[in-house]
Amino acid sequence: AIKTGLQMDGWLKSVNEYAAWIGLPLEIYTGEGREYYSSYVNEYGWPGNAKHSQIQNRLKGRAFRKMKKAHGSGLVILSGIRRAESARRARLV
Q: pLDDT band for position 21 (50/70/90)?
């Protein structure tokens, strides 16, 4: 069940196709999203490293808590790291 109207350069289509291919149901949960981030940057400027954890929580942490509340401990999360984004991510396993 898609819970949002995400349209991110074909990302949603790829995720839907992969979920169908592996035969698992797909649910997408979001945090505060782009609107929150855009308004934050407009009001306070670029958050930088000092505010990274706060922004991360609003954008991603809240979505994980929504999933956990909806499904409890019987939850499988598949995620990917985009190694090309940064040298730090490229080193992650």
A: very high
Q: Record the pTM.
A: 0.55
**How does pLDDT run across 48-78, given as a tens digit for each residue?**
888 878 888 887 888 888 888 888 877 777 6
Closest CA relative to residue 34, chosen from 55, 16, 13 = 55
Query: DSSP states of the chain as a string?
Result: -B-S---STTHHHHHHHHHHHHT----B---SHHHHHHHHHHHH---TGGGHHHHHIIIIIHHHHHHHHHHTT---------GGG-HHHHT--
Chain-centre distance for alpha carbon 58: 10
